[in-house]
């Protein structure tokens, strides 16, 4: 946790107050070094349960545990000073009842020192969102494509097309009414995202939901090109880390095999006081 008391981190209230203003910028992070890089540019840093897929190689987010979220939440906390830190509630730890959700959220907040939690679901989770917010736990909701429901949704498909749009609108209004401070809207048509953003009193944070939203979020490994298992259409890739890292690893392997690495500058003298290499190592 940051000990610099001069730096004031953004709060859920600050995020809600940004409704309709300059777009909110958000990315996921799972480690301390990456959290530091993201914190310098983002309003919200999310420890997403996408960590299960992009870091742990799991087949979906359904296998992610509370212990994993706490571990990564603590790591990210050490790198975040300015942004609002939000941690995902993993599948199976909150859906049963508001009381179960409170116990999970209280652990997440206490053990990671996050500023808020995120949970998936619209109307069906409104009661739980109200229960949590009335008890001091800020909630960011997540509607549209909710990856924890991949099995009932029948895949990672676009939500809210045609008549289904009304369901997404109801979900957005229900979570706002229940007290969520912002809502992630995933993989819905742009026109629907625009309607929802106009009608919904809290900021909409889009992922695959067009520029009409009040803000945007992406999975960091997707936008850096580090996660190559699949590339969603809605991701703009800003770097090709897989290619850069692959090239660097290949160069290292070749250097070791040809005895080009380590060089004299990476080795140690045999006696204390002997002349050190210029880099002082
Ligand atoms: O888990 C995650 O990274 C998320 C974002 C995609 C919004 O929920």
Structural summary, described in words:
Helix 6 runs parallel beside helix 8. The longest helix is centred in the C-terminal third of the chain and has 17 residues, at 241-257. An 8-stranded parallel beta barrel has the order 1-2-3-4-5-6-7-8, surrounded by 6 helices. The protein has 2 domains: 12-237, TIM Barrel; 241-268. It has helices spanning 12-17, 32-39, 51-54, 66-77, 98-112, 126-134, 150-153, 165-178, 190-199, 220-223, 241-257; strands at 24-28, 44-47, 84-88, 116-120, 139-144, 182-186, 204-207, 215-218. It has 281 residues and is of the alpha/beta class. 3-methyl-2-oxobutanoic acid is lined by residues 28, 46, 48-50, 88, 142, 184, 207, 217, 219.
Q: Gist?
A:
With 281 residues, the chain is α/β, with parallel strands linked by helices. The protein contains eleven helices and eight strands.
Bound molecules: 3-methyl-2-oxobutanoic acid
Order of helices and strands: HEHEHHEHEHEHHEHEEHH
Q: Any low-confidence stretches, pLDDT <50, length ≥5? A: none
Number of domains: 2
Largest sheet: 8 strands, parallel, barrel
The general outline is globular
């Amino acid at each position: 946790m940051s000990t610099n008391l001069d730096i004031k981190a953004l709060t859920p209230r600050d995020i809600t107050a940004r409704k309709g203003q300059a777009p909110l910028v958000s990315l996921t992070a799972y480690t301390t070094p990456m959290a530091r890089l993201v914190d310098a540019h983002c309003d919200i840093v999310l420890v997403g349960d996408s960590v299960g897929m992009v870091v742990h190689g799991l087949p979906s987010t359904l296998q992610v545990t509370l212990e994993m979220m706490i571990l990564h939440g603590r790591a990210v906390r050490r790198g975040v000073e300015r942004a609002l830190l939000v941690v995902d509630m993993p599948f199976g730890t909150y859906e049963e009842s508001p009381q179960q959700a409170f116990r999970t959220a209280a652990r997440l907040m206490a053990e990671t020192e996050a500023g808020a939690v995120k949970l998936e679901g619209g109307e069906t989770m409104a009661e739980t969102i109200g229960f949590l917010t009335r008890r001091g736990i800020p909630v960011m909701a997540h509607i549209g494509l909710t990856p924890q429901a991949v099995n009932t949704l029948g895949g990672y498909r676009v939500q809210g097309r045609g008549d289904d749009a009304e369901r997404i609108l109801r979900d957005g209004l229900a979570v706002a009414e229940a007290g969520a401070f912002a809502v992630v809207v995933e993989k819905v048509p742009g026109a629907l995202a625009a309607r929802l953003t106009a009608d919904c009193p809290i900021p909409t944070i889009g992922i695959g939901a067009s520029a009409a939203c009040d803000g945007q979020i992406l999975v960091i490994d997707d936008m850096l090109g580090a996660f190559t298992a699949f590339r969603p259409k809605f991701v703009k890739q800003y770097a090709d880390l897989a290619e850069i890292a692959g090239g660097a690893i290949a160069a290292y392997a070749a250097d070791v095999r040809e005895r080009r690495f380590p060089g004299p500058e990476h080795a140690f003298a045999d006696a204390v006081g002997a002349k050190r290499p210029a880099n002082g190592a």
